[in-house]
Write a structure and sequence with these properties.
With 318 residues, the chain is mainly alpha-helical. It has 11 helices and 8 strands. Strand 7 and strand 8 form a beta hairpin. The protein is globular. The C terminus is likely disordered. The chain has one domain.
Length: 318
């Protein structure tokens, strides 16, 4: 069974203009609360993701139910795969990678980190960090779906036959990730001459990067690359506005230099390259996982066979 090419609902002209105007207004208004109320800046700045998501939900309201249902199923499956990565990062690795110095920028609700010996309350993580990963993935996914299924729907690939399996081996990406990690470690040790190991880069390369590329083969023919470019441009714009001009200068969060690779963007308050890379990887992972989820949901075989492929049948034994 081919993976279908979804068709967007034909909105009335007035509704289409209202949707476009509302979405633009929400994008323009999103940075205002974080700038106007610095005492809770981190908390209110999450509206950068919440408000655009509400704008896309306005589009959902005009989408026929029969077309909306498969989109929602693929959206739910995508978020179920991606959000736990952010939760695991916060619970087990945030204390090694990040600092949270400005306690006035958050509500004051903290979640203890987890170690092998139990909870670590000394390095607790603000609740806003968990909301960031949920709201961020939701916003990136919804903006991509909105662009893919509305004004960029003509750029969507034609129907594509279901692949033999959704999951594939990622030996080459893993080798590339290990090579990049080795180069970063050498630079940190001999170029930047900073102590420590680039563990944040190791997490990004060996978990989100490799896991995403196990889905890339099945997702690539289905991705609307124009919609991805639009979403990525928005995400990178948000990251520059949010992180380099607000979060880092105001101490909402920071990076432990011993866990970084030793490459920094000086004009952006010494923002580490990992902070830029994570936005691209998050956007790429969101799109690839969504398209792989669509392929999985439209696969005619049972779920085990859809994920791992049919088992090779043994011939008759003598």
């Amino acid at each position: 069974m081919p993976v279908p090419r979804a068709n967007a609902a034909a909105l009335p002209r007035g509704a289409s203009r209202l949707q476009a105007a509302g979405f633009a207004a929400l994008l323009a208004a999103a940075p205002v609360p974080g700038l106007a109320f610095p005492s809770r800046g981190y908390t209110l700045s999450l509206l950068l993701f919440v408000l655009p998501s509400l704008g896309v939900l306005l589009w959902f309201a005009y989408t026929p139910r029969e077309e909306l249902k498969p989109l929602l199923r693929a959206t739910g499956l995508t978020l179920a795969a991606l959000v736990p990565m952010g939760i695991v990062l916060n619970l087990f690795f945030a204390r090694r990678f990040f600092t949270y110095e400005n306690r006035e920028a958050v509500l004051g609700w903290y979640v203890p980190s987890l170690t092998l010996s139990g909870p670590d309350r000394e390095h607790a993580v603000p609740a806003e960090e968990f909301a960031f990963y949920v709201a961020g993935f939701v916003a990136m996914l919804l903006v991509y779906v909105w662009a893919r299924e509305s004004f960029l729907r003509r750029c969507s690939p034609p129907p594509h036959d279901a692949p033999p399996r959704v999951l594939g081996f990622a030996l080459r990406p893993a080798a590339v990730a290990l090579g990049l990690l080795g180069a970063a470690w050498l630079w940190k040790a001999f170029g930047a001459r900073e102590p420590g190991f680039p563990s944040y880069l190791a997490y990004l390369l060996l978990l989100p990067f490799v896991v995403t590329l196990t889905l890339y083969k099945v997702a690539r023919p289905l991705v609307n690359w124009q919609a991805f470019a639009l979403m990525l441009s928005w995400v990178l714009g948000v990251s520059v506005l949010w992180e380099a001009s607000q979060a880092i200068p105001n101490g909402w969060w920071g990076y432990r230099r011993e866990a970084m690779a030793g490459l920094y963007v000086a004009p952006w308050h010494d923002l580490p390259v990992e902070a830029v890379l994570v936005w691209f990887l998050a956007a790429f992972a969101t799109v690839v996982t969504f398209e792989a989820a669509r392929a999985f949901l439209h696969h005619p075989a049972p779920w085990r066979e859809a994920l791992f492929g049919a088992r090779a049948r043994r011939g008759p034994t003598p």
